[in-house]
Amino acid sequence: MLPSFCNCFATFATMSTIIYPSPIFGPVHSRRLGVSLGINLMPADGKVCSFDCIYCECGLNHQHRPHLPRPTREEVRAALETQLQRMAAEGVLPDVLTFAGNGEPTGHPDFPLIIDDTIELRNRYCPSAKVSVLSNATMLGRPAVHNALLRVDNNIQKLDTVSADYINKVDRPQSTAYDVGRVVEQLSRFDGHVIIQTMFMKGTASIDGQSYSVDNTGEEYVAPWLEAVLAVRPQQVMVYTIDRETPTPGLLKATHEELDAIRDRVIAAGIPCTASY
Predict the structure, then answer these.
(1) CB 129 within 8 Å of CB 97
(2) How confident is the model at residue 8 (pLDDT cuts 50, 70, 90)?
(3) Rounded to an integer, what distance in angstroms lies between the CA atom of residue 23 and that of residue 13?
(4) Per-residue pLDDT tens digits for 197-214
(5) What is the Cα–Cα distance from 129 to 122, expressed in whole angstroms?
(6) Given 27, 81, 121, 168, which is the most exposed site by the fewest CB atoms within 10 A?
(7) Are 27 and 37 in contact (CB under 8 A)?
(8) Is the dihedral angle over the CA atoms 19, 21, 24, 25 positive or is it negative?
(9) Of the candidates 23, 1, 24, which has an alpha carbon nearest to the alpha carbon of residue 13?
């Protein structure tokens, strides 16, 4: 079931799938960001993502192939301005404008221009709000995307592990060119203007007749991940675990104690870190 604050904006949902409206949804109450107005640059009827994470709340890619197009830059701007005008009239403004939804937002061909529009509208209607992007870091090699992310307040990039085998089994990049080592280098090029977000979980996944552990809370995963985090030197790290039911059975939450221990190691290394359970 969806939390009560989501019932008003989910286009449709099953026990383990949320498909968000497009281009604007919410506001919603984010565990990590506060009152968030969502901006979804993917189609409203399906999922388009450069990852196919087995824990994704939007389901697996093949489960919701879209038939509608992505919203245009003009549609995003118009819808965002209308919603901000409505919220301003009601005296309830968002803490953050968050690019998220049914897939990877930086994959939209007009992503950099949409960021420009969003910053302009933010400055006009809710200047204290932050602009956040939740990304899986697959498009960081595009200079225009990199430069656009430098302009947002919260450049939040996924790095679940530095194990290529784990990534291929759990995050499942859709391009064979994905290289986590190169991603770490690209994250480092933000010179600290980046927030690392990492999903820690446990359990055993069963996919296509194969079963394998998805536990990345052990030292063999945490220690190399922490080394990569130190190389990137982000402004912050967010560690979290599963919050809703997943499209793949067998996945389990990391414990409070495990997340707290990882969080404390990051903080001890001199980087601010939060844990969400």
Answers:
(1) yes
(2) very low
(3) 17
(4) 999 999 999 877 889 999
(5) 7
(6) 168
(7) yes
(8) negative
(9) 1
Token pair, residue 107, equals: 């994959």
pTM above 0.90, yes or no: yes
- Are the C-beta atoms of residues 169 and 225 closer than 8 Å to each other? no
Strand order in the sheet with 273-276: 24-30, 34-40, 96-100, 130-135, 154-158, 195-199, 236-240, 273-276
Task: Answer yes or no: are the C-beta atoms of 231 and 181 closer than 8 Å.
Answer: no
DSSP calls for 206-238 = EETTEEEE----SHHHHHHHHHHHHHH--SEEE
Tell me which residue of 232, 242, 225 sits closest to 57, measured CA to CA. Answer: 242
Six token digits for residue 79: 């819808």
Half-sphere exposure of 216 (CA within 13 A, CB side): 28
Tell me whether strands 251-253 and 34-40 are parallel, antiparallel or unpaired.
Answer: unpaired
Sheet containing strand 251-253, edge to edge, reads 210-213, 201-207, 251-253
Q: How many helices (H) and strands (E) does the chain have?
A: 7, 13
| pLDDT tens profile 10-49 | 444 444 578 999 999 999 887 666 789 999 999 999 999 9
| CB atoms closer than 10 angstroms to residue 63 | 16
